[in-house]
Amino acid sequence: MAASSSVKIGIIGGTGLDDPDILEGRTEKYVDTPYGKPSDALILGKIKNVSCVLLARHGRHHTIMPSNVNYRANIWALKEENCSHVLVTTACGSLREEIQPGDLIMIDQFIDRTTKRHSTLYDGQCSALPGVCHIPMAEPFCTKTREVLIEIAKKLGLQCHSKGTVITIEGPRFSSRAESLMFRSWGADVINMTTVPEVILAKEAGMSYASIAMATDYDCWKEHEETVSVDKVLKTLKENANKATSILLSAIPLIGSMEWTDTLHTLKVSTHIRSVCTGDSV
């Protein structure tokens, strides 16, 4: 089936998962936004006739720490390129015995433990976005897009958990053991440093957002297990990065062939549930 003209996929690649070679006919585009510059140049291309825009979250040389990523500029840049969907990859630590290093998790909920990040596009910096946005966040991730990713992962025979709650911490340090145990008691399944505010901003922008999380370690809660380190994270990513890539290469053509009018309309409508400058109630 031919790709839908209304579908354009933004891909935000996380640590070790931002290979531009997945795109055909690549070109680079440097842009600016009302919120400053995004993490790097946008790389435009196609995956099996579906238009895509790839952006390295931490910059192509991984020079931007999680707290300093310009999440708002990244999302705005993808929206300005008319992306209807945002598919992202992220490394994470496992807080559950059953989620083993190398496993994939299609996260469906988040807990926010960040402290230093701009978490809304509606802060007065962009004249095109007046007012205050009170975006519904009961379902942060797009269910329909997640279902596609889960289906593809299963067809590829990959070890994939169909849901999970991620807790996003500020970083750049890893958790203390006391924190890791506390996060487990809160119901978090995995831990990372980037999902928030990215998922919130994508929802404000009216885009379908879904995340492929890859467990790299057991954080530090598990006794008699090597605690998380940068070397361990990178080693696991290097061994397993092809899993996320294979999902994207199969899922994107399927997403491009599907009908998304109702889903995208619902996302746009939810963005308009807000209080405006005049003091209207939500």
UniProtKB/TrEMBL annotation:
Record pathway: Amino-acid biosynthesis; L-methionine biosynthesis via salvage pathway; S-methyl-5-thio-alpha-D-ribose 1-phosphate from S-methyl-5'-thioadenosine (phosphorylase route): step 1/1
Coiled-coil blocks: none
Main subcellular location of this protein, as a coarse class: cytoplasm
Any one biological process term the GO annotation gives: L-methionine salvage from methylthioadenosine
Compartment list: Cytoplasm; Nucleus
Gene3D superfamilies per the UniProt record, alphabetical: Nucleoside phosphorylase domain
EC nos: 2.4.2.28
PROSITE patterns: PNP_MTAP_2
Keywords: Cytoplasm, Glycosyltransferase, Nucleus, Purine salvage, Transferase
Gene Ontology MF terms: S-methyl-5-thioadenosine phosphorylase activity
Gene Ontology CC: one annotated term: nucleus
Record's catalysed reaction(s): S-methyl-5'-thioadenosine + phosphate = 5-(methylsulfanyl)-alpha-D-ribose 1-phosphate + adenine
UniProt-annotated site: Important for substrate specificity, residues: S175, V230
Positions that bind phosphate: T15, R57, H58, T90, A91, T194
Keyword Transferase listed: yes
Binding site for substrate: M193, D217, Y218, D219
Family per similarity comment: Belongs to the PNP/MTAP phosphorylase family. MTAP subfamily.
Known function: Catalyzes the reversible phosphorylation of S-methyl-5'-thioadenosine (MTA) to adenine and 5-methylthioribose-1-phosphate. Involved in the breakdown of MTA, a major by-product of polyamine biosynthesis. Responsible for the first step in the methionine salvage pathway after MTA has been generated from S-adenosylmethionine. Has broad substrate specificity with 6-aminopurine nucleosides as preferred substrates.
HAMAP family: MTAP
Protein name: S-methyl-5'-thioadenosine phosphorylase
Organism expressing this protein natively: Anas platyrhynchos (Mallard)
